[in-house]
Design goal:
The structure holds 2 protein chains of 2 kinds. By secondary structure, chain A is mainly alpha-helical. Helices cover 68% and strands 3% of the residues of chain A. Chain A has helices at residues 9-14, 18-38, 50-70, 73-78, 80-97, 117-134, 143-161, 166-183, 187-207, 210-220, 231-242, 254-257, 271-304, 308-332, 350-370, and strands spanning 99-101, 104-110, 113-115. Chain A has a 3-stranded antiparallel β-sheet, covered by helices on one side. The longest helix of chain B is centred in the N-terminal third of the chain and has 41 residues, at 3-43. The N and C termini of chain B lie far apart (133 Å). Classes of the chains: A mainly alpha, B alpha+beta.
């Protein structure tokens, strides 16, 4: 392999995929607006301060993204196993001394800020898998490698599952499978893995808490208890459906303001319902387009990256992002069960935003340091 | 090219393919999401908008008009009168910007209104805030029950202020004030019923708390309706969507007669006691008065804690309905029953004679006659006329206590009459078993003597004694007293199916005749104990009674009289008791006379 011309200083910044940065910033901007709207109940003085906090997180996210983008991803990958160990350690710590919010022990309080170690674990897993599967000396088709990769995913999966955070844990599975697929693992092995997973799924059902099994049951039959567990789903569908083509206008979503959409989840997991109600199909489509821009940027970078690890890193980040978006939107329109996955960059939440921006930063780094086409 | 480089090149080429596959997959998935969104939001958006419409509704419960209560001739005992209130409609007063500005505006509007109407403000700023938070789609009532002056000022000065309206509420009222306080009872604010929880808001409703208002509450109350109001994004009402009218409560007609009730009320005056007048044939209660009473209008819409405490702490116990819940010792009014018991066992007859020396010595105790000098030798009729204690001691000792207990129970002493009023007392007829349980000893002859003159542990209510009087008037037929006659709903009259519900006691006519002869002499004879009840032109049968109670150093006397008239075909059975007085003949008999006089006068009017 020919060494890459060293990019330094502002040169590196110039090589950034700025379309992706614009799309990400636009999504964060939309997020701020609708977090405001979701916390607005008719009185500007009574708006919960979520949107202001999110502004700080978004700024931090952008900073992290640029810093990561200017760092050579190969240096990051070299330390991937260390990061992996740290992430697993934090997950264990969350189980021991974690703060429990609404029944799930997924928060660590660091200097007064609540952090979800699971978000760190997600991107660290992508990096570790990219490094492991991307080393050109390895024969990717071998069982040993597939097994190691699966075990590597399995440890954080079990720890997150135990918290319990079904949605985040589930996000690790497509990351593993698609990265294995792209790395060149034969289809038969992947099919075998899937079948194995399905066989073990009933075991998982036994471990799930009642509210989690309920969520899945109500996904299958929401009419069973329209005022109870099926409420969020039904109200969310009504919110989305009543938005129409152009929406009801900013701050005018009645579902949201009248409190039919639960106020605890409207700025977080159900932010898309608020957007779809107030900005209509057009607004929802714009969101999808913005995500498409980011995903395309990731995959384009993957195609043009010069080493396999870089390619896998970009694919992994894209899959992670895609899974969040698809499951979250699918949940608000009733396609997926309610899992508590945020809409990345848009939903209220600090750890998610910073972690995802760091992931996008790694993609930028691949572009800056390892692409053939210099922008 | 070295082999490993070739392999890496090939691998990277196929990686490119696989990345493109993943990319395509994502595009397809996003396209799918977009299609679902299009179908939900644009193609079938109407469906969801319809559902949303239903979401922005609030259900308001509308109470029914409470049924009125009439006496037997159509005088209104409980009515609903309109109460004019000033209502503030927030929909029209909403100010742009934060809520505090609306609160501010309504606050200053109330100040202006208070000036215009000349009324002190009753709604605080905090009340306005609470109303906005809790009951925004409903009007806020700023003043209740405007008087004529305020109403006139309203019409002149304030009627065209937007957002302020006159609102007519319905308020329970009792035109006769304290006259029917115990029997008709009163209402209070109803608590939320379980079915009320289906509604988002309910307007206040009345609930019967005492008397007929309580026992017939479900009929009087009717069925609440409801309306569905549409609220906008901030919760303001902007349209009434549908409403289901409330079903009005039924009007209730009672057996009471205002004229007789008034007579009894007047005759009692401010003395503590009770009067019950029964129609002996069918148990219709024509009057039921307990004194002292209270004004039931105090309870509407709600009684003040001070008034309520005053009623509770009054030593004369105005809340107690003495006629059905007063615990009285019957005294000599029980003697007709003792005579009847002795006659029915065959142990004695009309001409059974005993001598009264003024006392009876029994097992070392001396039982006195009320007339210390003694009545001398007398038969049963004379014994009733003079209410001779010694005669009845001996009579009871001869027939034993069992027939007296049995008869007392048969005429309903010691259990509730089943009258359609609340908190009825059952009273007590002590027997051997009861003595053993409460005194730890058996029944002695002394107890029989006490029972024979209605003393000891025996407890009766005035209503029970009125039923006893009615039983004698009927020659041995028991009636079940009742106060409700029929209901009228939507102009259709329906009798309350209680009927006379009589029970024959199986008394022999010749026995009844003896007792009635004695009871007639009580009133009719010049020296009868109840002679002060006599009314010229009518034959009245009765029996007085005087029963001592209270501690030794503060003896008081219950003054009783039971009576019925006219003797030939009785139409009125009456029972009178006073908590304090000289004697039954002295104090209760004149009341009987007054009430019966008014009864016959009323008959003459028709």
């Amino acid at each position: 392999m020919t060494p890459l011309p060293s990019a330094t200083g502002w040169n590196r910044l110039r090589r950034f995929d700025w379309m992706m940065m614009v799309a990400a910033t636009a999504l964060m901007g939309v997020g701020i607006c609708f977090i405001y709207s979701a916390s607005f109940h008719g009185d500007p003085l009574r708006v919960a301060p979520y949107y202001r906090k999110q502004l700080i997180w978004d700024g931090l996210g952008l900073l992290v993204c640029i810093l990561m983008g200017m760092t050579d991803y190969r240096r990051i990958l070299r330390g991937a196993w260390v990061w992996y160990g740290l992430a697993v350690g934090l997950l264990l710590l969350a189980i021991v001394v974690g703060v429990s919010i609404r029944g799930a022990q997924r928060w660590l309080c660091i200097l007064g800020v609540y952090v979800q170690p699971a978000e760190l674990a997600k991107i660290v897993l992508v990096a570790v898998l990219a490094r492991y599967l991307g080393s050109s000396v390895r024969r990717v088709g071998s069982w040993r490698i597939v097994l190691t990769a699966t075990l590597t995913t399995g440890i954080p999966f079990v720890l997150i599952f135990r918290q319990p955070d079904l949605g985040t844990a589930a996000a690790l599975i497509p990351v593993l499978l698609i990265m294995l697929y792209v790395a060149g693992v034969p289809a038969r092995i992947l099919v075998f893995l899937c079948i194995l997973g399905l066989l073990f799924a009933p075991l998982g059902w036994l471990v799930l808490d009642e509210y989690q099994t309920n969520r899945i049951l109500f996904f299958l039959d929401p009419g069973k208890d329209p005022l109870g567990a099926g409420w969020n789903k039904i109200q969310s569908e009504i919110a989305v459906g009543s938005g129409g083509l152009w929406g009801k206008g900013f701050l005018k979503g009645t579902q949201n303001i009248l409190g039919f959409l639960p106020r605890s989840v409207a700025p977080t997991d159900f932010i898309f319902s608020v957007i779809a109600e107030e900005a209509g199909f057009i607004g929802a489509a714009v969101i999808l387009v913005l995500y498409s821009v980011i995903l395309s940027a990731c995959l384009r970078t993957a195609l043009s990256a010069r080493d396999v690890a870089g390619k896998l890193l970009c694919v992994g980040v894209a899959v992670l992002l895609f899974f969040h978006v698809f499951v979250n939107i699918g949940m608000t329109v009733g396609l997926c069960p309610i899992t508590g996955l945020p809409l990345p960059l848009v939903s209220y939440g600090g750890s998610v935003t910073v972690a995802l921006m760091a992931a996008l930063g790694m993609v930028q780094s691949v572009r800056v340091f390892a692409t053939r086409i210099y922008g | 090219m070295p082999e490993h480089v070739e392999r890496v090149r090939r691998r990277s080429a196929s990686i490119g393919f696989r990345i493109r596959v993943v990319w395509m997959g994502m595009i397809v998935a996003f396209f799918f999401l977009g299609t679902v969104l299009w179908r939900m939001q644009v193609a079938s958006g109407e469906h969801y908008r319809q559902r949303l419409m239903r979401q922005s509704t609030r259900r308001v419960r509308l109470p029914a008009r409470r049924g009125r209560i009439f006496d037997c001739r159509g005088a209104i005992l409980a009515d609903n009168r309109p109460s004019y209130c000033i209502a503030i409609h927030f929909e029209e007063l909403r100010q742009r910007g934060p809520w505090s500005r609306t609160v501010e505006y309504v606050d200053s509007l109330l100040d202006r209104l208070a000036d215009m109407l000349g009324l002190p403000r009753r709604i605080s700023r905090e009340d306005i805030r609470m109303h906005i938070r809790r009951r925004l789609p409903l009007p806020l009532i700023a003043w209740r029950d405007l008087d004529d002056v305020a109403l006139a000022r309203w019409a002149e000065l304030a009627s065209n202020i937007p957002g302020v309206e006159l609102y007519v509420d319905s308020v329970r009222c009792y035109p006769f004030g304290p006259l029917f306080c115990h029997v008709v009872g009163y209402v209070g604010r109803a608590a939320v019923t379980p079915s009320g929880r289906d509604f988002d808001y309910y307007l206040p409703e009345y609930e019967g708390r005492r008397g007929v208002e309580k026992t017939y509450d479900s009929l009087l109350r009717g069925k609440a309706g409801g309306k569905v109001v549409l609220v906008d994004a901030s919760g303001f009402r902007y349209r009434d969507l549908v409403s289901r009218p409330a079903k009005d409560g039924a009007d209730l007609w009672l057996t009471l007669d205002v004229r007789i009730q008034q007579a009894a009320f007047d005759a009692l005056g401010d003395r503590a006691g009770a009067v019950v007048v029964l129609g002996p044939q069918d148990g219709r209660i024509l009057a039921l008065v307990s004194s002292p009473g209270f004004d039931p209008n105090m309870f509407v819409p709600a009684i003040s804690p001070a008034d309520w405490n005053a009623l509770l702490e009054d030593s004369r116990r105005p809340l107690l309905n003495r006629a059905i819940a007063g615990a009285y010792v019957p005294g000599s009014t029980i003697k007709p029953l003792v005579a009847m018991a002795a006659l029915s066992t065959g142990a004695a007859g009309r001409d059974t004679e005993f001598t009264c020396p003024g006392y009876l010595d029994l097992g070392g105790r001396r039982f006195h006659c009320w007339y210390r000098k003694g009545h001398g030798r007398l038969n049963m009729v004379a014994a009733l006329r003079y209410s001779c204690n010694v005669y009845f001691y001996r009579l009871a000792l001869r027939c034993g206590p069992e027939p007296i207990w049995r008869l007392a129970r048969e005429v309903g002493l010691g259990r509730r009459t089943g009258v359609d009023l609340d908190y009825e007392l059952s009273g007590l007829v002590p027997d051997r078993e009861w003595h053993r349980r409460h005194f730890g000893r058996g029944w002695s002859d002394g107890d029989t003597c006490n029972l024979a003159i209605g003393q000891g542990a025996i407890v009766v209510t005035p209503l029970q004694m009125a039923v006893v009087a009615a039983a004698f008037a009927n020659g041995g037929r028991m009636v079940r007293p009742h106060v409700a006659d029929r209901i009228i709903r939507n102009g259709v009259s329906k009798f309350l199916g209680r009927g006379p519900e009589t029970a024959d006691l199986g008394w022999r006519p010749q026995d009844v005749e003896v007792v009635l002869e004695g009871m007639a002499e009580v009133v009719g004879a010049r020296d009868g104990t109840g002679r002060r009840a006599a009314l010229p032109g009518y034959r009245i049968a009765g029996k007085t009674g005087t029963a001592q109670y209270g501690p030794e150093d503060d003896r008081k006397k219950y003054c009783w009289m039971i009576a019925f008239a006219p003797l030939e075909k009785p139409r009125y059975a009456i029972s009178v008791v006073l908590d304090e007085g000289q004697s039954g003949g002295q104090d209760a008999a004149p009341i009987v006379r007054e009430v019966l006089k008014r009864c016959f006068e009323a008959e003459a009017c028709e």
